[in-house]
Amino acid sequence: MIEAPMPCADHIDLATLSAWRDRALTSAEYRQLTEHVAVCPSCQYRLRAIDRIGQSLQLPDTDEYQERIWRGLQARMRRPAAAHFAGVPRLVAAISVLVIIALFALLAYRGHFLQPEKTMATATIPPTLTPLPAIWQSVPSVSYAVGIAFATNDLQTGYVCGNPASSAGPMKLGVTHDAGLTWTTSSLTEIRGGYCKIYISPYDALDVVLEGWTCSGNCLTGNKYMGTYRSGDGGKTWTQLVLPPGNEASGVTAIEFPVWTPAALFVLAEPSTSTETISPEHAIAVSINGDPLTWTTENPITPIPANPFSIKIFTTGNSINFSMTQPNSFGLTDMFTSQDNGATWVHSKPQGLSPTIGTLRTAADRHTLVGVHDTLQGNDIIDQQAVFSTDGGKTWSASSAFPKNSSLWELPLVYTTLDGSMFVALTPFGVSSSVQQGIYKLAPRGTSWVFVAPLVGEGSTFVAVSGDSTGLPKIVWEIDIANSPPTLEFHPIR
Amino acid sequence: MFSFVGSFFPASRLRFPLSMAVRQRNTHNEATAPPPGADAAAFMTQSHTFETFFRQMEPRITTYLLRITGENEAACDLSQETFLRAWQHFSEVQRHPDPRAWLFRVATNLGLQHVRRRRHVVGSATPLDQQHDPAGSDPGARWVERALIQQVLDGLPPKHRALLLLREVYGFSCAEAGELMGMTLEATKMALYRARLQFRERYLSKGGAQS
Q1: How far is B21 from chain A (nearest CA, A)?
Q2: Coarse DSSP helix, strand, coil percentages of chain A, rounded to the nearest 5 percent
Q3: pLDDT tens for chain A, residues 1 to 494
Q4: Is the complex ipTM more than 0.90?
């Protein structure tokens, strides 16, 4: 059964929730239940259970039988119609022929037969056929972008942001709902900056947050914080997210849409660099149901030494986690976990092969954590491997190793999709490496990383994956920062 | 060699003319010869367009049939039969507002027919082998418990199995999946609910993870 540990106050049954998920209710019922689901932990729990059924059924299509099927099909396509009767007993065949002749005669008599066949010369290809060559291609209309994201629950909806002038002027936004085939661009008069970051709700591809910064250098890092804005309608209208008093002058360094509810949004504020300690107090704010941000706790926990530039928030299960790396350390060393929207926190130290903090991601299954662990010899990285945690980050273990003598590229390094695929951008590690720089994929249940596409050039950054309506990844996207302004490039993958 | 990734573009986004499809088709060494008496040029043009269509859609249809039948051989045979029918009605398929739905309708009918005719019992309680023991497997390999999922699917009534796959995997709406199966919206809604419930119960009873 799909039962939640807590009862639903309105006694919504599973059949109704199932119909809501299928959008098979009336508009009024759908609206009413949507409002209820946003605040009902029981319904959210049961919907997650239904979601997991859909996720578990995802399976990459296989083309391993294609040549065999095509060869058999070709033979049958060439076969004249009469050949279909081969092997049928003669008497049955003779009777069938007589019946068919009689039927044809009847149809011809009634004028429904022997009309000229329609020519194929003017036919257009079926709408689902849109072949793309397997090479990198740029998208000129949005080749100002320095930020890109595709929704994990809808790989066809994505956003890019940036500013061709690399200035503090109005930000430009590009939106696609067809996996990147077409983009609609607009100028956001109230949101300014040249550098930006985009975050999309895992529940609603139209719920999106945009951070604006002035540019530093090549505009791939932010300089001065220009504000954070949220849109619930796919970028048409925006509302500013203002940090509460206490640390309101700081910028926002990260946004986290929690995986257990569509109602909340967590914001990680820029910590002060004048102190060597840091705690969640005045660092993490939360917005519930679109209300203004409030600090998650007024009760500071014992501060610990931390590298202020190596902090991260992530959610999994029903926990918000504040993770950090201590000074002179690469990996995740400390975590504060809260299961009450940040009111109280529990400190823990991850065990096992903890990942480099910048690589840590919650996978699209909303449960598994993935990352990359560095093996160090002194201060030198001598090996890297993919690691996973299925207990909210408490313990970490290795999975398939990266190709030997390879290293990760910078910035968004790991990308997971709804079918469980994981993508990384790798570059040769060491002078004797034979690894080809490019994008590698670890398929669901896969045991080795497979090269899927080269990178555009030196300094390119792999940033996103779009796909089909079933959640299968089909295209990788990267921003080529060697060009000015940077060009947005895409590459189809199998 | 070109890779065709167009299946995720919705019907309304069509912009490539026939000539481009022919230019960019996935070329194949074995040219299809026309049947005796056919117009060779027209046949070649049409068969090239059809090959493009086949190469794009085949993986999806074969995988779908694999999950409906649970048998590799049957899935290949039924996939070939589905595309033969598409070839025989290709002008109709091309005019169809959603050729994908046309294919899935045929594949669903063939798959369900096959399952109904099959004599042996499916979905019996085959013990899971060691590699599917969640506790003993690689965390990365645990993401999709394919064999377990297929066992659970095999245990569902065929119509429920097809509905669940069409809705959850292939992105058909509740109404579209119902129409494809010849069911009313109300019946589809209820069948989907029951399918999910049965799937979840069987999955857990066979040792699937709670979360």
Answers
A1: 7
A2: 15, 35, 45
A3: 566 667 888 888 888 888 888 888 888 888 888 889 888 888 888 888 888 888 878 777 777 788 878 877 877 776 554 333 333 444 554 555 555 555 544 444 433 333 322 222 222 222 222 334 445 666 777 777 888 899 887 888 999 998 877 677 888 899 999 888 888 888 888 888 888 889 999 888 999 999 988 876 666 667 788 889 999 999 999 999 988 887 666 678 888 998 778 888 998 887 655 444 555 556 788 898 888 998 887 554 555 555 555 677 888 777 888 887 776 666 788 888 888 887 788 888 999 988 887 778 776 666 778 777 877 777 677 777 777 888 888 899 876 656 666 665 543 445 667 666 777 777 666 666 677 777 788 776 666 778 887 776 555 566 788 887 777 778 888 877 666 777 788 888 76
A4: no
| CA–CA gap between residue B123 and residue B113 (Å, rounded) | 17
**Which backbone phi and psi does A186 adopt, to 5 degrees?**
-145, 160
Rounded to an integer, what distance in angstroms lies between the CA atom of residue A390 and that of residue A367? 7
Residue from the list B21, B34, B91 with its beta carbon closest to the beta carbon of A129: B21
Q: Are A353 and A399 a contacting pair, CB within 8 Å?
A: no
Is some CB atom of chain A closer than 8 A to the CB atom of B168?
yes
Q: Kindly give the confidence (pLDDT) of every residue in chain B, 211 residues in length, as a single tens digit, with 9 standing for 90 and above.
A: 222 222 222 222 222 222 222 222 233 333 345 555 566 667 677 778 888 899 889 999 998 998 888 887 788 889 988 999 898 888 888 888 888 889 999 999 888 888 877 644 333 222 223 333 333 333 334 334 567 788 888 888 888 899 999 998 888 888 889 888 888 888 888 889 889 888 888 888 877 666 5
Nearest-CB residue to A65 (from B7, B57, B62): B62
Inter-chain CB proximity A69 and B79 less than 8 Å? yes
* A365 vs A221: CA distance, rounded Å: 29
Set of chain A residues whose Cβ sits within 8 Å of the Cβ of B34:
78
Rounded distance between C-alpha atoms, residue A337 and residue A319, angstroms: 6
B contact residues 38-77, partner A, Cβ 8 Å cutoff: 42, 45-47, 49-60, 62-63, 66-67, 72, 75-76
Nearest chain B Cα distance for residue A4, angstroms: 12
**Interface contact B182, partner A, CB < 8 A:** no
CA distance A61 to B203: 22
With a CB cutoff of 8 Å and minimum separation 6, the contacts of A387 are A352, A353, A354, A355, A370, A371, A372, A373, A396, A397, A398, A399
Whether B146 contacts chain A with CB within 8 A: yes
Are residues A466 and A180 in contact, defined by beta-carbon separation less than 8 angstroms?
A: yes
Q: Do B21 and A131 touch (CB under 8 A)?
A: yes
The amino acid present at A192, given as its one-letter code, is R
pTM more than 0.95? no
Mutate to test the interface with A, among B5, B54, B104 (most CBs of A within 10 A): B5
Per residue in A399-451, pLDDT (tens digit) is: 665 666 666 554 344 566 766 677 777 766 666 667 777 778 877 666 677 88
DSSP state of A232: S
Nearest CB to A77; choose among B24, B32, B52? B32
Contact assignment for A129 to B16 by CB distance below 8 Å: yes
Q: Which of A23, A125, A368 sits opposite B143 (nearest CB)?
A: A368
Q: Chain A: give the shortest CA distance to residue B24, in Å.
A: 7
CB contact under 8 A, A367 and B211: yes
Of A49, A388, A469, the CB nearest to B140: A388
Instruction: Classify the phi-psi angles of A246: left when phi > 0, otherwise alpha if psi is within -120 to 50, otherwise beta.
Output: left
